[in-house]
Records
---
Amino acid sequence: MPFLPLIPLLPLAGALACGLLHLQVLRARRHHADARPAEGLIGTIATLAVAAAFALSLERFFALAGSSGERVLTWRATDVWIPTGGPAIPFGFRFDALSSVMCLVITGVGALIHLYSIGYMKGDRGFARFFTYLNLFVAAMLVLVLADSMPVLFIGWEGVGLCSYLLIGFWYEEMKNAEAGQKAFVVNRVGDFGFLLAMFAAAYWTGSFEFTGVNSAVEGGKLATWQTTVLGLLLFVGACGKSAQIPLYVWLPDAMAGPTPVSALIHAATMVTAGVYLVIRTHPIFDVSPIASGVVACTGAATAIFAGSMGLVARDIKKVLAYSTVSQLGFLFLGAGVGAYGASFYHLVTHAFFKALLFLGAGSVILALHHEQDLFKMGGLRRALPGSYRTMWIGAAALAGLPLFSGFFSKDEILAGVLGGRPVFGIPGLNWVLYAVAAATALMTSFYTFRLIYLAFEGEPRGHEHPHPNPTVITLPLVVLAVASVAAAVLGLPFGISHALQHWLEPVIGEPQGHLSHSAEILLLVGSGVIALLGFAIARATYGGGLAKAEARAAARPALYNALSARWWIDELYDATVVRAVRLTSFIAGLIDAFVIDGLVNGAASLAKRGAASARRMADGSTQTYALWFGAGMVVVVASLVLLR
Amino acid sequence: MTLETATLDAAILNAVIPNTMIPATAVLGSADLLKEYLLPLLLTIPAVGALLVGLMPGRNTKPLWTIALLASVVEAVLCVLAFCQFDSGNPNSQWTYLKPWFTLPLAAGAGIPVKFHLGVDGLSILMVALSGLLGPVILLSARGHIHEREREFLVWAQIMQAGMLGVFLALDLVLFYVFWEVSLIPLYFLIGIWGGPRRIYATVKFFLYTLGGSLLMLVALLYLAYTQRTVDVQTLSTREMALQPQLLAFGAFALAFAIKVPMFPFHTWLPDAHVEAPTSGSIVLAGVLLKMGTYGFLRLGVGMFPEAAVTCAPWLAGLAAAGVVYGSFLAFAQNDIKKLVACSSVAHMGTVMVGIFALNGAGIRGGLLQMVNHGLSTGLLFLLVGVVYERRHVREISEFGGIARTVPMFTMVLLVATFSSIGLPGLNGFPGELLCLKGAFDFHTAIGAVAALGTVLGAVYMLSMARRVLYGPVTRKENHGITDLVAREWVAIALLMVPIVWIGVQPARFLEPTEKSVDLLVTRLERAKKSVAAAQTHDGTRVAALEVPR
């Protein structure tokens, strides 16, 4: 399949082209400090590269849909990319039901965000550098989802981590941004540590680095339950890093330091879903290990409500969305943990649309207000930015799960999956607890989403009277994504009206487990709708009347409010424990090196020196001394001859 | 090869190896002859270069640099050609060169013949290529910072080049020992003459440390000569020896090599040596000299004493894994960029050792590849440290900050070096590290897991360094005016960057030549594992570390 490798190669070529143009700008700046990049050319190349990858993905998607049998297109560059002495590591791609949809989402949303970025990054000194990284990111992300083996997935996995690092710290002249980038990479490396061990263990136990090999070994019952549990947990450690779950979520809120299109593409729509993708890709492992899947479900639920609670009070518009993303990713893991892979993936897709939309909308607001991100200083933008207002309202409705928007159906699918899916840890009652947690989170989601809308768009302007309007390159992607946020609903309507996505995915994830009765489904659907509307109503009641009233209410419960705004002091906790422990250990290592090891070395040296100095005194040049030593030596020799006989 | 250089080489051959009277023209016509004399030629070119530089009249130093650089380029081309022409299907030594040298007299009976025996096989071919490639890099870098006693510097640098290559080519223990020492002395002068303010302390420490190791090796060599009546490495590698003498000899060799690698806790000479060494000295030290230790472990330690290696493997691998973690923490504590990179070498060489003493196919492959990778990425890092040092004459991390704005090209290259060093897939570090860790994991789960912590810690100290040097606002006004990379530096960088990317994309191309030799070694090790296990069950004793439950 010669088309398949082109899908990631096109954005990679785009990255190379933009990189060369960036070098050209750098050369020009040696003579003219203010040389500008050719923005039109760079933006066009980068956007077209991703759009072409989208077109190719679409073509391959239809080829896949038209194919019979196993429904998979494969491509192998080599069977021996790395020889290991045992099972070789191949380099190949696998375009199947799961990766095809991922490719479409990545390139589709990616192309829109590239287009948007042309407007957003206009006039930035690093315009070419930005698009180099962004294109490189898309290429790496495509490698990640197309990989047919764990090491190749890891190439993409680390590649997106690299781009994330570079893009979070894109405006590196602020140390805070560079620190956020480093934090993201290091925390992800903690997760990667788990992934690496999972890869080694899988290869050791199953003799294969490939997903098909590992999955079929697990499905064939070749592994003991404890082995699948270990594998599942190690993989989940990796997933936790990339998808920002407890306890490794801390990097994602800080990652908002990057330019907003980056937050939309990497930290909402694509990269952060890689962990969920990994779990679905290796789902047979989780299917047979109740402990591993239980940990996934419970961590997901806990992350969902925990991050959701922090989103309730955040003042930075991007931070609200960041917490929301962490929380929604928790939803995805909850769904995957109970075996509702189809529902989880459905929400992954709809979330990619509406969260990208919300971030881009937020970006358009930020840009219009000259880089103001504080919600408390916004307000009244409804009239000035009607395009942003309308599209963001649609995105908010989808995120909150207002009836008939895509998020309503996909979130409901997960909730239904929690009740109808496999018992968590094998204990049926736990599913009800998780459902309650998820429902509470849904209420919070609806509340903070509309809080954002009310604070930004309704009421009177608080600080910025004259926002400047957005150009078409910025509003067009918003409109397209808004349409997608509504239309994506058709991928999985309830009552069997349309289970398009579920059916499409069946070759990979199998038949859905556990069905609820029709009446139960209706009841849940109504319940989800009520929860979403309730959250909307509370937000309206609180923030519809202006900021002062809302602040007064918050002040009534200062302890809770403080805990929430301080993000439960988790960052402080990590600083005080993990970070300090690492620093202390390295300080101690330095001391050991300087005083213990080198102490011994230098001590031995000075001992030899002193010994030599005293030995030198024996040879002082006087005949009497030599005679004395001679005599003493004779005595010793004679004595030893006599005594040792 | 151009006509001039070929003639020159042939002349050199005639001059240096008097008992091989070849007419110069024959070299031109006969590729076979080149193959026959390729390895001695590799040793001769730098030696003749040193001679020419040393004897050239006149005070002008420019022609000296030209001669040295030319010799190093010819050398590099030949080394890379050797890599390209290497027969991957052959597990044994290629292009072997064997001439009797002298006889080691023994107290009783006939003496032991010592031979000038050279050869390349899968265990050494990568190191030969790397040593050759680094030659021009070292000289190009030195052009920027060696401004006094240049003639001497060029002589020593070339002698060192010959000595290092000799270590990787020698198949005779005495010859190996000679080259080992030959490569030690030039670095002594490199640091002692062109080094930093504490250079005397650093050189003495470095010299005594490594000399102590070498002397033990000499004792082991004589012990082997007397008991086995041969000093030929290939013969010794196929000879069955009892475990006890193996352990004695292995122990002595292991200490010498452990100091050279250096393995924790014998590493403290390295940071001092690096900090005081001039950039070129650091590049060659990290790039090639340290690998003489790991190579020695593999060729002599594991190759000649497989049973002893199997017995000691859990301890050595465990110590190496501890070194990975310790070295990483140590690196994080440093404020001097050069010292940080030096400490990171302790960690990275630990990874190599973990791979080698996993004693399986994956680990040894990884060890071999990672030796090259470390040479490339650390070589590049030292080169870059040198670049800023030449401009600012400081190396403290806090002296920089925000220079991404002033030197964007330098920033780009430093980021590549950083990510190569921390094993980012797509660059060279990844396949090497992956294989080392996979081998270690297969060997012993806990050792593999501890060594894998290095991937997390590596990101911590390397990215902290990169951030503090490159990012944030420009805090010192001296940093506003520094110039970006110049052409000479670009050439040196390109020589390292091309293989960094190439190995990352196509690792199999670089692992392929090692395959057969590694397989041969692994077969012997499997046999050794069985015999050690059999001996242990025979004794009714068990060495716990060898049979750890998974």
Note: Chain A has a mean pLDDT of 89.
---
Amino acid sequence: MFSPAGMFSKVLIANRGEIACRIARTLREMKVRSVAVCSEADRGAMHTRVSDEVRVIGPAEPRVSYLNVDALIAAAKASGAQAIHPGYGFLAENTAFASAVEDAGLTFIGPAPEQVRAMGDKRAARALAIEAGLPVVPGAEGGDGAALAREADRIGFPVIVKAALGGGGKGMRIVEDRGALDEALASAMRVAASAFGDGAVYLEKRLAHARHIEVQVAGDGTGEAIHLFERECSLQRRHQKVIEETPSPAVDEPLRARLTEAAVALARAIRYRGLGTVEFLLAPDGAFYFLEMNTRLQVEHPVTESITGLDLVQLQLEVAASGRLACRQADVTRRGHAIEARVYAEDPARNFLPQAGTAVKVRWPAAPDLRVDAGIESGDAVPVHYDPILAKVIVAGETRAEALERLVRALDESVVHGVTTNLPFLRALARAREVERGTIDTEWIERDFLAGFAALASAPAPELALAAAALGELFGLNGAPQGKAGRQRQSNVFAALGRWRHPGLD
Amino acid sequence: MRSEWRDGDRVRMVEVAAEGGGRYRVTVDGAPFGVTAARLADGRLSLTTDQGVTIAELTAAGARRFVRLGTLDFVLDRETGGAGGRKARGPRAPGGGLESPMPGVVTRVMVAVGELVEKGQPLVALEAMKMEHVIRAPRDGRIRSVAATAGQMVNGGVPLVEMDEETG
């Protein structure tokens, strides 16, 4: 079953979109066969086209397809895959899935199920971090409403109420003063119970003007662990990361040493296996605090790949297959600066409402220091059922300034027509003076940027744009006839190809 | 040729008159200017005005037009005009319907026909791309009709609920 090097010969990708395409690319690079899975709504989607095999696993709704543990394991078994890569989102941090995969005799490309569980419960994760000697945000892990209220008084307002099984900003409430606490606790417990199946919540002090810095780590499962430097992800809107970069402009060498040492200490303490990310908040005074650990490949992993020259998916596969880290800390070096911008199907001019439809025309720029991880090509459907991320535009430069200039250009030259995207928002963000200076924090977009952007986004379109639209009607550039002609041409091509087909292959 | 375009919150009026030789007189919101236009390949137009030459790239998706001028993208929606024409998105004038602001799946319908509702009261919840969006009553009134059912998939701009103004 295993190739001579001990690597898997076939891996199932339990995901869709850009990350499934990204994983398929490394599998192909490593000469491992890839099995894509898709819902009925995703038949023919890009991730199925770039994989070696496809299995349809269920209807459109994620619950019965991409979150369907039995269907995924059955697909892996039927296709002869030896391992499952969960990507991010969906079942990537689901303990039951990780266990079910291993119980089925397959390899879960990720940490051990108990590590997924421990880090999935944010209170347990805090406790483990404290045990490993990491500073955590002042807060309170347990007790009922009254106990939490006493703790809130002790640490001081404002505080953040978080769901124990939440993460990534889901189920979070900021409470400004004591008067609003009881209501916020009750509401957060209700939301947590319905969203995560457990009403447990905990408190953290809200740190003003904090930056989000995370450290990429990798462990072999026996206590050996390395770091791959930090990433800064402070540019967020509603706790959703928008632009990420590495290195962080707020981290100097001494701070980097302390951050990476803390992250590695945690990974070692829990004998972490595979790739993980230790997230920290960096306060304006330079103090940092453990936030949570993500036990999976991150959306923003390409910036780390860019500066280190490592393929993180390959690293995951090697650890999963051999139980060893293919590189030592001393082998990991970095060069230059990398920035990633996430292209989402959402309308930045209308309160970032999610968008769906057909991405009629998709065009990405190409340049030596540019990488685009996309999950769509021209003509692809963007279904309503899934995460709105369409693609990631990743640039590199010798310096941060150079990378940022390249990001501006790359975003200007990226075209997605047919589905409204946040590209105008990203273009404005990449040009913002505070972004250029690096003087940002996790609330900067909402506090200082959105109002100005909204004014920009609601400005009338130039007369020439209106003229182009109206002239387009006159010239027949309004869709239907063109599309028909295009299809006609395409079917003729296939008809012509058909003649050259070998008789025995039909 | 006259056409109306929704541009964010506003409706823009455009009139195009051919003057021969690829020249057009284009009037946008009452302001006229001259354009020499030529159709290029792949949905592109060459537009020459007294400001110079601009290449516009046009993509149609239903009534929506994606217009790229240089490196700037604009989204315009063709208004069909007339009595049946959609004049505005979202909450309409009194008596009108409440439309889905985005394509999505109806997750909850919180009102029934004949029910009295207060301004701000949640009526229907839609979910798309893992985000929930709640449509609320734009004013006090009575529910005239409910077109949405839970679990149903809807496109953007589809009427979900109709309200009457409460008169007593």
Note: Residues 82-95 of chain B have pLDDT under 50 and may be disordered.
